């Protein structure tokens, strides 16, 4: 039996056993439009770095600190609305993400900077877990 025949047989059996919805959900999960994030811990602060290329107005980003978690929600607009798309790999549209910070942080960030599509937010480490707190961004430096 050839490799293609074996794969086709396995694929058919997997679909019978797991169902069509399983594969649709797996593909949908793999296509999430969440921005990439890095979290760094210093002695007294947590630095969150978020990829947000194409975000026209960073002040529309919704953020909330919930204990040791930063929650963000926003939208990256499509600058070519109305054009026919022949290839689309860049992120656009609504997104939301829950970012584990690993330690409790203060309710307010100490600085925020958006440059070249990268948002950097610095939070002081806090000894007590913070309550839920929504915030608006005020930039130190924009490009």
Automatic annotation (TrEMBL):
- Family, similarity comment: Belongs to the small heat shock protein (HSP20) family.
Protein name, per record: Hsp20/alpha crystallin family protein
Q: Which organism is it from?
A: Thermoactinomyces daqus
Database matches in PROSITE patterns: SHSP
Q: Which Gene3D superfamilies match?
A: 2.60.40.790
Domain SHSP positions: 28-140
